[in-house]
Amino acid sequence: MYQTLGVCFVVLLVLVAVQGEYCFRKYKGRHGVCKGQIRKNFRNKEACCKQHNAVAFNEIKVKKGRNAYVCTPCKKLFEVHTSVNSKWKWGPWSDWGACSVSCQAGYKKRTRPCLKGKCKGTPEQMHPCMDKQWCPVDGSWGPWFPWQGCSASCKGGRQNRYRYCNNPRPENGGLYCHGTNTDIRGCNAKPCAVNGGWSEWSGFSVCSQTCGWSIQTRQRTCNNPPPEHGGHWCKGKDMIKRRCFERKCPVHGGWSLWSDWTKCSVSCGTGKVKRSRDCNSPYPKYGGQDCHGKTIEVKGCQHTRPCPIDGRWSDWSDFSKCSAVPCSGVNGEKKRSRSCTNPRPMYNGRYCTGSSVDREKCANDVGCPVNGSWCEWKDWGACGQTCGNAIQLHRRHCKCPAPLNGGKPCEGPEVESRICTALPKCPTVSRGCRRGGSESGSAMKSGSGVGSGSGDGSDVDCDQETDDSDTANPSGSGSGSKRG
Q1: First CA to last CA across the chain, in angstroms?
Q2: How far apart are alpha carbons 179 and 140 in whole angstroms?
């Protein structure tokens, strides 16, 4: 309490000072605040305002902020003295208003109206005041203390916490804190823990494998009841195992290790070596599968000494020009060559067998005259008729060779004919015969050189009615005919 009184007394000393004439260099008319006090004592305010740098004064030094004070401008003195003869006029000051605070130091003010014209100066004044030295202090709650323990561990309980009206305490007639000093809430609303219990054992399962020794199991579950709300799990094992046997399992075959590599199959150059293995590690049993893969492995081998390479002939070159004199009819010679380079004989290999040069006779007759020569006779054609007298032909061509470049044509006939033999007699005609040389001559001509008569057996000469086999008809055979 004594500390509070000391603070208030200091504030009062700061705000309120002894009376005197105080002068200031700066004035802010909007806030009515002065700064820059002139450190000199003056008899009165007129003496203050006569200073060349004075702008405001105050009889009571009232502080308003840091190094700022409530004051009156010097212009107001001039306005008061000249307001009688000017065009403006202030009215009387009002009574002082109430103090700005109900306790401790504050300020009060009064105002005056402008009765005429546009008044110069301030329309209000402020003065320090203190209606009551001590202000009442309302109480305020301090912080809540921690929650106390819960009244139950599960299914809901209660817990409390407290606070005090001491931040600050109520003083000088101040109000007590509003509200309650105790807070209550629920706690541990979760259900109580339930420990788990085992179910009955199940039957044993089938064996884990279909052959050989394996395992079968039976189980139980921690659900009778299941653990809840933090309850303990069941104690003990949830599974029991035991061995079981169904049948022997198939044994698949496995490879043995590879044997050593054999010796190289050749004594020089590139050859082959091989190695083998057996499906006996283990043998396949009880329906097991055979080994997969090869029983023999082969790879190449290389001797440091190369094998002999026998030489082989290259392709023949083109023939050279013929050495014969052109169009002389005398044969000359042309030749071609080859080399033993495909490949060359190496490492004591054999040289190529045979000659490296090939010679042929030739005639230089390109563009020379070539006399024609007959080709072979073709086979004889068919007889012109099937009975009586008839002839047959065969032919040859002048193309072996044909005459070229002004050469002579072939000499002799191109076609030969002969009388067909061994043909049967034609049948006898019963309707008569023709007589006279004119009819028989015309009949021979009508046969086109094939024989007498028309060839159909309908009309024959009377002289030939009994036998015409010995009669020849050479009239259509040509100069080159011959007999068969």
Answers
A1: 180
A2: 10
Q: What is the rounded distance in angstroms from the CA atom of residue 341 to the CA atom of residue 310?
A: 10
Residue-wise pLDDT for 219-261, tens only, equals 999 999 999 888 899 999 999 999 998 888 899 999 999 999 9
Under 8 Å between Cβ of 388 and 425: yes
- Residue that is written with structure tokens 């009206």 in the block: 165
- Dump pLDDT digits (tens) for 273-328: 999 999 999 999 988 899 999 999 999 988 778 888 899 999 999 988 888 888 87
Determine the Cα–Cα distance for residues 243 and 12; give it in Å rounded to an integer: 103
Question: Per 3-state DSSP, what percentage of the chain is helix, strand, and coil (rounded to 5)?
Answer: 10, 25, 65
> What tokens appear for 334 in the block?
């042309």
CB 36 within 8 A of CB 22: no
**Residues 6 or more apart whose Cβ sits within 8 Å of residue 291:** 252, 253, 254, 255, 279, 284
Most distant pair of Cα atoms in the chain: their distance: 208
As separate numbers, helices (DSSP H) first and strands (DSSP E) second, the chain gives 4, 18
Distance CA 370, CA 403 (A): 5
DSSP 288: P
CA distance 17 to 59: 10
Q: Would you say 272 and 264 are in contact if contact means Cβ atoms under 8 Å apart?
A: yes
47-64 average pLDDT score:
71
State residue 477's pLDDT score. Answer: 37
Q: 56 burial class (0-12, 13-18, 19+ CB within 10 angstroms)?
A: buried
Which of 20, 50, 21, 53 has the alpha carbon at shortest distance from 36? 53
Angstrom distance (rounded) from CA 46 to CA 120: 18
Q: Is the pLDDT assigned to residue 465 strictly greater than 60?
A: no
CA distance 218 to 239: 6
Q: What are phi and psi of 75, to 5 degrees?
A: -60, -25
CB-based contact 275:297 (threshold 8 Å): yes
Q: Decide: 372 and 410 in contact? Cβ < 8 Å.
A: yes
Owner of token pair 């933090």? 230
What is residue 132's predicted lDDT score, i.e. its pLDDT?
Answer: 80
Q: Show the CA angle centred on residue 424, arms to residues 418 and 428, nearest 5°.
A: 120
DSSP 181: S
Residues 6+ apart with CB under 8 A from 327: 364, 365, 367, 368, 369
